[in-house]
Design a protein that fits this description.
This protein is α+β, with helices and mostly antiparallel strands and 450 residues long. The protein has nine helices and 25 strands. The strands form five sheets. It has a seven-stranded antiparallel beta sheet with strand order 1-25-11-12-15-14-13, covered by helices on one side. The chain has a six-stranded antiparallel barrel with strand order 19-20-21-24-23-22. A three-stranded mixed beta sheet has the order 2-3-4. Helix 1 (2-16) packs antiparallel against helix 7 and helix 1 runs parallel beside helix 9. The longest helix has 28 residues, at 417-444.
Length: 450
């Protein structure tokens, strides 16, 4: 019975991770159905990120007259302003103005005060542009006394600092299913990048210290590369240098499961209210929205600042996986709270800052008539690109065959059928939700879905 139970657990784990190895990362090294021109070295690390109209207006008007910008449900930029003249300028530029009491300077001053207070693991804060507030959250690990002391700090700043308790715990999304593995833990590949000489995987810094060896299998037979030049805490990014020096075919593609891939064509900083997608090796493709920027999270391992806050879910093993929108790279998964059954909050390291600090470039698909950097000789010549929706061979067993094997009395014994049924119901629910998110992606980007 004990052996049968272990077989059930192993098979359910494999079923939950179905979709293949490196599902969430850019390390798609198999050939794909259609092969447009190979990838080119992307936007240089010295290039400024693409900015929306709202971001431009905030930059032009200054931090004392504005308090951030976001995109409303209709896709129109909205800028928070503190005076009528600024509001008039925003309206003339074709954006919508919202009068607020506190400027960006006020909001950032509040976060500086919070940073100077004694550090409390399990807390986070971010700038809520829409509500002109700073939101401080505490997870289930924060004691009543620590929460009380932090509340006193918030009250001393002013009423625009809002305190909220959250379910679950703020953790780095580590130790999950089967993406890239090492003795340091398990993570997801993010985006492929290059310094012009060698190719690397951009992933989360907390995934492992410099020198960690990464493998594509749990027996350590297929070595992928070695970690180097990471930053955590403070930031949350690192590079994994490919052992062979090249990313190989599909270097400009991120997998989203179901045999599909998305071509990465550039990078940018996201905007609050922007709809985004995240792919990870544990929970697959998920959709959500950017809820705040410049977030600070006090993980048990240390504090990370400058993160992107979203309402998309993530789970252990999704660390380092890519966040993107319409083929534009935005971030890599850092951590968060909750899961993809109950929902939660997930934080991302901005790609633009990571590339700037690491002095590497994103490997992107060549786009005919595009506006990105001019094509340059790639460090991954010969790599096959894929339009969104192209078939990418996926490693892993068919769902139906696994279900049949799991439910077979000869494999698990009659006494475990009830347990197996319950586990299958849970896995089926997660799989259905993942399928719903894939369909949402197709619907949202129908113009580019192949």
């Amino acid at each position: 019975m004990r052996h049968a139970r272990r077989r059930v657990v192993r098979r359910v784990t494999r079923l939950a991770a179905v979709g293949g190895l490196l599902l969430g990362g850019a390390m798609v090294t198999t050939a794909v159905a259609s092969e447009p021109p190979g990838p080119s070295i992307g936007v240089p690390y010295t290039a400024p990120p693409a900015a929306g109209k709202g971001t431009d207006l905030v930059s032009r008007l200054g931090s004392t007259r504005t308090a951030g910008s976001w995109v409303d449900s209709a896709g129109r930029p909205v800028v928070a302003v503190t005076d009528e003249r600024a509001a008039a300028e925003v309206e003339r530029a074709g954006a919508r103005a919202k009068m607020v009491r506190h400027s960006m300077s006020d909001l950032k001053s509040a976060t500086a005060t919070l940073r100077s207070a004694p550090r409390v693991p399990g807390t986070s804060w971010a700038l809520d542009y829409k509500n002109n507030a700073v939101v401080v959250r505490g997870d289930e690990t924060v004691s009543a006394s620590d929460w009380s002391r932090l509340t006193e700090v918030a009250e001393s700043i002013g009423g625009f600092v809002r305190m909220e308790r959250t379910e679950g715990t703020f953790t780095t999304r580590l130790n999950g299913a089967q993406p890239i593995l090492s003795t340091a833990g398990r993570c997801s590949a993010g985006f492929n990048v290059t310094d012009g000489t060698s190719d690397y995987i951009l992933t989360a810094g907390h995934c492992g210290p410099d020198g960690s060896d990464w493998f594509a299998d749990d027996r350590g037979r297929e070595q992928v590369g070695t970690s180097l030049r990471g930053s955590f805490p403070g930031d949350d990014y690192s590079l994994v240098k490919y052992d062979g020096g090249r990313a190989g075919k599909g270097a400009d593609v991120v997998s989203i499961g179901d045999g599909k891939g998305v071509r990465i064509t550039g990078l940018a900083d996201p905007e609050v209210g922007q709809r985004i997608f995240r792919s990870g090796s544990t929970s697959g493709l998920r959709e959500g929205e950017v809820t705040a920027l410049n977030a600070t999270v006090n993980y048990p391992e240390g504090t990370v600042t400058g993160l992107i806050e979203t309402d998309v879910c993530a789970e252990p093993g999704d660390s380092g996986g890519p966040m993107f929108a319409d083929g534009i790279a935005l971030g890599v998964t850092s951590g968060g709270s909750g899961d993809c059954t109950a929902g939660g909050t997930t934080f991302f390291q901005p790609v633009t800052k990571a590339l700037t600090e690491l002095k590497v470039k994103l490997i992107v698909s060549k786009q005919t008539g595009g506006t990105g950097a001019a094509p340059a000789p790639s460090a991954s010549q010969g790599a096959a690109a894929a339009s969104p929706g192209s078939s990418v061979p996926v490693t892993g067993e068919d769902v139906s065959s696994l279900v049949n094997r799991l439910a077979d009395p000869r494999n698990v014994g009659p006494g475990l059928l009830v347990i197996a049924g319950s586990l299958l119901a849970l896995v089926a629910t997660r799989w259905i939700r993942a399928e719903q998110d894939r369909k949402a992606y197709r619907q949202h980007y129908s113009a580019t879905w192949g």
